């Protein structure tokens, strides 16, 4: 039948409000609207029942032709289509107009799809649509203010509101309302700004629910128990939230489950570098608080025989991988990356014999765990595998040759493990491979042309941090054009690798530490002009760098640790990272450096021969996060303008010839500054009071200068994050402020070689970070960007020598107050600093006893109390300090026997010399009671028996008549052995001398 005349007029009126630039509605003419494009009528009556004007080629579609977007206004003539049951306007561009409220009058509507149609504003109340079964409002421009209208959609089966702002309605109201929709089968509320806990429901009415998508919200609670009681569930996606607690085992009992995605549920903030080839290169995670989603994979997971997707990545899943996963014959995605999985990969998965030959598995992602053991051979039997990611584990053994049979493999990530052996040549058969990463392992051997035979699609190649030797012919042309080539620590030289000349698309290139020497050929600079990241550091490259580095905008250039000479090169465009450290560059910093590098983030010129003054124009480089000019020949004052670089996290100007006062501007605007090194210069004056504004500071190193004045009290009040305070070798004076103990994060305090006086404050035993043993190492990196960063380093005096710490710096706990004018006792409270690795109080005027409880400092590696006025015995407990490598108690007034047992026997006499009252091994002075080395009997034993002294008495008077020599010798011998006689004699001498000295 032809369409109803009234419906045809209504549609033509509706068309007049639309803008149709591609004339999609060209067929809307004539009288039979049932034949118009997008219109469907009821067969018997001719009434229009369906208006489907969705864009068939939405944005991003590979088959899109032109811009088939309808726009304009939605005229209310649609209300005249009284039989309308289906309305689809999705993927058009209605330019932010509101959703028409008259849609609520289309009372027969069963299907309404306005997804990504360009509507915005509040979702109107459409609760009158009691027949509606399908509702799709997917749009980031729509907002829901209340839920009253949703209660009226009693027939609703499919609800999609992805990206709609639902934050105005409490999550508890959402679930209470949704629980009243008994026919609901599909619920999609992804990226809706939902937050808070999912409530407990007194009863569950969602007995038909099959698909639940709550991903990418801010839901924060345990996964509710009622959820796993909905046996009709087929797909559950609750990833990228903040769920915590144990994963309910009930998921493994859902009989029809096909998709389970609980990935990325950590109560944290994660900052990642850029996404390359389907994976995040670097992930830095900062924990906030609370529990995380955790648990173990039960063996019963093998019962989910319909499961196609299992994603539990970025959680805290522990334990091993059960062998029952071999029974998941329909599994396509298995991702548990970034968890705490332990154990080995199953060597013989249960049921694998029935699945491996026909397994649809495409993605196996287990990177960033703690898996050990060898790679099993069955990995090479997943013929459909597209991605295999096992990087950042502790896997060992060889790479299976069978991986070369995975003809569909595009992504192979085995980096950062402990794999050994060679790279199988069968890898060269993977014709679809675009990403190959075996970096940071213990692999060795030759890499030849066979390894790349069929890798025509290869775009990312990571071979760095192994011991490969590239052995290809001089005329070999690689079959690929890579855009990421990482071959650091591979042996490529000594000649400069000529095969790079064929690579025209390189954007990221690393051949650092590759045994390359000589100069860089001219043709290389043409290739380098297109790179974003270039790292040629740690080679023996020489010659001059081009005066003008022609490279890509926002590039990262690392030429450090080579033999380059000549002036500092400057890029022709602005770059973000320039590292020229540890070469032989000379001359001065160009005055126009700020014009060439206005937005550079990382600038390192350390370890060269650059001289002259630091130009004031450097303050115009206001994007700087790191500036390292250390170990050069700079002179003059520190420019005030550096204080304008408000994004600075690290400043290192140490080991130069800088003079004058520290500019106060450094403390005015650098609120992000975390590490400041000005040591080994000729700076004078006091610490600027403006430094109290550096609230983010973690390291302050001003050692080996000529600074004066008292130590300000505000240092102990302003730096809650300070880890290291180095002020040694200056001329600071006065008392040590007791408020320094407020520095709760302080691990290294070095105030040596100054003029501090008075006693050591008892509060120094309250340094909170020093009271804890540091067992977890944290590499301190600042200004990190594109895998380039400033590595924190600190020179610490320990074991009688200066040691530079970088990687293990966070484990060092040191207190050095040596070479001052300190007096008084060693505070007993010092023994509460249980984490101390080094304690140096030498060369002061400290008196009193060594605290007996010093034996509690079990982590001590270096203890120096020499050149003081300490008295009393050496505590026996020192022998319990098994880590002690240096002990110096020399030049004090200690007395008694050296407790020479246990670990103390490893120290020689020099550790105890200069203490006249000390005796016993390892000193030459014997203590009373020591055994005679000839007879094995002590002198006191002989005295008690009367053997020795009876003989002396018998011949005592005979000695009087002997000669002058014998007359002197025998009394001396007698008194040296007969203790009572010698005491009486020397006591009389003391009285005579004392009387004479006061007369």
UniProtKB/TrEMBL annotation:
Subcellular location: Cell membrane
Pfam family, one: LRR_8
UniProt source species: Ficus carica
Keyword Iron-sulfur recorded: no
This protein's name: Leucine-rich repeat-containing N-terminal plant-type domain-containing protein
Residue ranges of every copy of the Leucine-rich repeat-containing N-terminal plant-type domain listed in the record: 5-41
Primary site of residence: membrane
TM stretches of this protein: 955-974
Membrane topology per record: Single-pass type I membrane protein
GO CC, any one term: plasma membrane
Keywords: Cell membrane, Glycoprotein, Leucine-rich repeat, Membrane, Receptor, Repeat, Signal, Transmembrane, Transmembrane helix
Signal peptide (from-to): none
């Amino acid at each position: 039948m032809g369409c109803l005349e009234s419906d045809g007029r209504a549609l033509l009126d509706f068309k007049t409000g639309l803008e149709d630039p591609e004339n999609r509605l060209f067929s809307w003419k004539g009288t039979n609207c049932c034949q118009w494009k997008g219109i469907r009528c009821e067969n018997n009556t001719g009434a229009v029942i369906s208006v489907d004007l969705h864009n068939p080629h939405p944005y991003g579609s590979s088959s899109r032709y032109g811009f088939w977007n309808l726009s304009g206004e939605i005229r209310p003539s649609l209300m005249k289509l009284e039989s309308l049951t289906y309305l689809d306007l999705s993927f058009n561009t209605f330019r932010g107009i509101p959703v028409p409220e008259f849609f609520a009058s289309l009372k027969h509507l069963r299907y309404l799809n306005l997804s990504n149609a360009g509507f915005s504003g509040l979702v109107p109340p459409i609760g009158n649509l009691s027949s509606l079964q399908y509702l799709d409002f997917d749009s980031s421009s729509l907002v829901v203010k209340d839920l009253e209208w949703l209660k009226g959609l009693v027939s609703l089966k499919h609800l999609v509101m992805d990206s709609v702002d639902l934050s105005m309605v409490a999550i508890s109201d959402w679930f209470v309302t949704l629980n009243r929709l008994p026919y609901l089968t599909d619920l999609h509320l992804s990226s809706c700004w939902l937050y808070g806990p999912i409530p407990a429901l007194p009863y569950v009415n969602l007995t038909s629910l099959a698909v639940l998508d709550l991903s990418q919200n801010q839901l924060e609670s345990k996964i509710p128990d009622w959820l796993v009681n909905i046996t009709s569930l087929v797909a559950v996606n609750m990833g990228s939230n903040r769920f915590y607690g144990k994963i309910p085992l009930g998921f493994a009992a859902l009989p029809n489950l096909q998709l389970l995605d609980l990935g990325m549920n950590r109560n944290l903030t994660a900052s990642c570098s850029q996404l390359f080839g389907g994976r995040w290169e670097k992930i830095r995670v900062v924990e906030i608080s609370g529990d995380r989603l955790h648990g173990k994979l039960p063996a019963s997971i093998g019962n989910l025989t319909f499961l196609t997707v299992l994603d539990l990545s970025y959680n805290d899943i522990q334990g091993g991988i059960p062998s029952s996963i071999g029974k998941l014959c329909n599994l396509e995605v298995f991702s548990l990356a970034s968890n705490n999985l332990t154990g080995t990969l199953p060597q013989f998965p249960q049921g694998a014999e029935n699945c491996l030959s026909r397994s649809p598995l495409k993605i196996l992602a287990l990177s960033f765990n703690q898996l050990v053991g060898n790679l099993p051979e069955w990995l090479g039997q997943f013929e459909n595998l597209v991605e295999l990611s096992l990087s950042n584990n502790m896997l060992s053994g060889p790479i299976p040759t069978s991986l070369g049979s995975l003809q569909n493999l595009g992504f192979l990530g085995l980096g950062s493990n402990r794999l050994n052996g060679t790279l199988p040549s069968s890898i060269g058969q993977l014709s679809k491979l675009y990403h190959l990463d075996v970096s940071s392992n213990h692999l060795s051997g030759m890499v030849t042309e066979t390894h790349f035979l069929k890798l025509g699609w290869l775009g990312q190649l990571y071979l760095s941090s192994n011991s490969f030797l590239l052995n290809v012919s001089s005329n070999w042309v690689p079959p690929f054009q890579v855009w990421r080539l990482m071959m650091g620590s591979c042996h490529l030289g000594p000649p400069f690798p000529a095969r790079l000349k064929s690579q025209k698309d390189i954007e990221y290139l690393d051949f650092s530490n590759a045994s390359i020497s000589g100069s860089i050929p001219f043709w290389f600079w043409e290739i380098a002009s297109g790179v974003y990241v270039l790292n040629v550091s740690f080679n023996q490259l020489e010659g001059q760098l081009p005066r003008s580095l022609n490279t890509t905008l926002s590039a990262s250039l690392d030429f450090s640790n080579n033999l380059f000479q000549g002036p500092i090169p400057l890029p022709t465009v602005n770059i973000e990272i320039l590292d020229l450290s540890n070469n032989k560059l000379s001359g001065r910093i160009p005055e126009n450096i700020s014009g060439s590098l206005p937005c550079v983030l990382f600038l390192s010129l350390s370890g060269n021969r650059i001289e002259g003054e630091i130009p004031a124009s450097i303050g115009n480089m206001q994007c700087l996060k790191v500036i390292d000019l250390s170990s050069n020949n700079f002179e003059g004052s520190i420019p005030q303008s550096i204080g304008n670089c408000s994004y600075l996290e690290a400043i290192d100007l140490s080991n130069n010839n800088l003079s004058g006062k520290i500019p106060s501007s450094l403390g005015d605007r650098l609120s992000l500054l975390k590490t400041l090194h000005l040591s080994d210069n000729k700076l004078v004056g006091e610490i600027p009071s403006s430094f109290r504004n550096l609230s983010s500071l973690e390291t302050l190193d001003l050692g080996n200068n000529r600074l004066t004045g008292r130590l300000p009290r505000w240092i102990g009040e302003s730096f809650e994050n300070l880890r290291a305070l180095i002020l040694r070798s200056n001329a600071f004076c006065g008392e040590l402020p007791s408020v320094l103990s407020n520095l709760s994060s302080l691990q290294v305090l070095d105030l040596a070689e100054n003029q501090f006086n008075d006693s050591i404050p008892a509060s120094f035993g309250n340094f909170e970070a020093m009271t804890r043993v540091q067992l977890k190492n944290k590499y301190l990196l600042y200004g990190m960007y594109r895998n380039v960063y400033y590595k924190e380093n600190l020179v610490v005096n320990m074991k009688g020598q200066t040691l530079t710490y970088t990687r293990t710096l966070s484990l060092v706990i040191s207190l050095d107050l040596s070479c001052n004018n300190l007096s008084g006792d060693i505070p007993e409270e010092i023994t509460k600093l249980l984490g101390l690795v080094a304690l140096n109080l030498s060369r002061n005027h400290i008196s009193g006893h060594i605290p007996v409880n010093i034996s509690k400092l079990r982590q001590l590696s270096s203890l120096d109390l020499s050149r003081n006025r300490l008295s009393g015995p050496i505590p026996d407990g020192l022998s319990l300090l098994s880590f002690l490598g240096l002990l110096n108690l020399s030049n004090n007034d200690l007395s008694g026997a050296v407790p020479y047992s246990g670990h103390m026997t490893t120290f020689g006499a020099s550790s105890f010399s200069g203490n006249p009252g000390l005796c016993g091994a390892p000193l030459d002075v014997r203590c009373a009671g020591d055994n005679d080395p000839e007879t094995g009997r002590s002198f006191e034993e002989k005295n008690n028996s009367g053997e020795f002294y009876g003989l002396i008495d018998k011949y005592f008077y005979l000695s009087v008549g002997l000669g002058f020599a014998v007359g002197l010798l025998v009394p001396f011998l007698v008194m040296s052995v007969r203790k009572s006689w010698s005491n009486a004699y020397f006591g009389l001498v003391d009285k005579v001398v004392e009387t004479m000295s006061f007369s």
